[in-house]
User: Fold beta-glucosidase from Pseudoxanthomonas kaohsiungensis.
Amino acid sequence: MPIAHPATDARIESLLARMTVEEKVGQLGVFADMVRPFAPDVNPEVNVSNAAQVLEQVRAGQVGCLFNGVGAAQGREIQRVAVEESRLGIPVLLAADVIHGMRTVFPIPLGEAASFEPQLAERTARATAVEATAAGLHWTYAPAVDIARDQRWGRGAEGAGEDTFLGCAFAAARVRGFQGEDLRAADSLLATPKHFVAYGAVAGGMDYNYVEIAEGTLHDVHLPPFKAAVDAGALTVMTAFNDINGVPASANHAMLTGVLRDAWGFPGLVVSDYTADMELVAHGYAEDARDATRRAFLAGMDMSMQSGFYAEHLPGLVESGEVPVALLDEAVRRVLSVKSAIGLLDDPYRSLDPAREVDTSQRAAHEALARDAARRSIVLLKNEGDVLPVSRQARIALIGPFARDVDNIEGCWTLFGDKSRYVTLEAGLRAALPEGAALDVVDGCALEAPLDGGIESAVAAARGADVVLLAVGEPQRYSGEAQSRTRIVLPAAQQALAEAVAATGTPVVVLLRNGRALALEGAVRDAQAILVTWFLGSQTGHAVADVVFGEYSPSGRLPVSFPHDSGQQPFFYNHPRTGRPETPEMTEFKARWREYPNTALYPFGHGLGYGRIEYGATRVDAPALEWDGSLQVRATVANTGARAAEEVVQLYVHDRVGSRVRPVRELKGFRKLRLQPGESREVVFTLSRAQLAFTGADGRFAAEPGAFDVWIAPSSVAGEPARFELLASR
Ligand code: GLC
Assistant:
């Protein structure tokens, strides 16, 4: 499945024919952009160089790509050196970690997944691409499509949560958004589904840790989002740091070649994560740098990021015959084909237009989108006594370290955000309130420590208010790379603040700031209302105010389960039922903890709005699904409340018996409806056996005839199932 246009094939072949081995290897090198360094330290310092050395490498044809620098004018200069001063004039790719926004910052991907609106993520990715390509970039190392079932892991913030079906929808949407309709367009940004594969399954939720995983789980849970991204047109894939059952992902032939190339026909290039080939030595999988280079390259890793190993050892490996030159040519052909596919061979200065970089005419539209994406990502967990929405005439106390904070708004992996445009909680609330409204703002404590007199001033403010908005949560640096936590709770100082404020008796609405599901405790868990606000990006304050004052009825649903306790991790809704599932009646000698049941405090798919949503019974149009047939499943959903609301109607199935035990529920569809007060609608989903397939005990991916439960429900635990039979093929 070639990607380059046939006409450029000839040009690529003629380039290949003229390239020395060193020049071929040069196309496989990815290095930090020291010419226009911009990104804060998001990686450990390895192989550090400087602008002059990088330009010299470019001039010598030793660079395929530079990453994490921005700026159109300087990017143009880099490209000029590549095109005019190197022997063959091959343009370089300019990449960066633009994960959820460039200058305008959107919610962290986990937050956006809570919207259950992939089309929204496509729009925010598109806006991101417009801003990133204006800043002199061709390629983003996003979307992260790792399935995260253990919230102790910090990088769940970058993905779409614990569910594969939702993860596939967002992976494809983000690839489409970044790349747009035409890869050759100046505002098309190459996407990179990462980290291939099973990075979210690291043992203990500890980043970079080993992964021991069943083949079925690997194929049915962790690989599908990558397949969805590749099917959506992704032309690059980034490898993972972890091993997979003892074989590091970055040198895993079964995955990089067996699955990606042979099974899926992926035509694009594979780039390593940062120094992942160098790390094969630390893993104990390679003897030394030369052995690591050989193993990574022969497994199917085309481009090596930052280690310099390919430049240093590949020529010798080709010389010795350990790496066939035909394989080297294949890798270079893929890199050149990607450069051709995005139009770089025709227009090396594509996306390097300084005039575009200073054009801010789209910023207002992007900020409006950021505000809409942010409020659609907010999840209302509880709302006792309808304390929300809050009246603008109420006396409000905004209390907590996030009240005025601007440094913990953007979320992890935000390298280029325009902080001058960030809207804090206080700013957003004040903008939504009339002049002179009663809004008292008190920090109460610092992010991780008490403040002298902080609790006293917070208690005084709470006593003088009709309602407290309690802005607490995780500092931004608690999620993202290398940020695994053993206890997914609030910092103690914030919990103490919450207890003191709640003790005043003033109703509390928690505005939770979080990069993962948290184990909520004490007064935070017991507050009258809880809004999960993730890290919402540039428009945080406005989006939260829209929901708090009822301009927007919260419509987000949890993409990750909120546990009772950290000790339950890894916890995910679609778990097997075990041989001793507990029931409300029977808890002795059952699969549960002494302290807690085997359930979530707030389950996957849960979320409330300001309407009153009621579901009718789930019904199937027939008792059986023919092997090659389809089956309609339907339910009526009504808003019996006085306010309009959006509802995420979810379709779940349970395969009651399988050749491998099956999850108690699996998401197979969802639809977000807007329901006016009094409005009801019949929702219909169509099932076929394709949606019931899994990797069975024989290793084949197929559905198995038998009995199924099916739900149309508001969450992964709600509702009563209907039942149908999948009939064997006649
Ligand atoms: C980091 C991350 C990866 C990122 C890369 C380049 O270690 O794992 O997601 O794209 O290095 O910064």
Remarks:
- The mean pLDDT is 97.
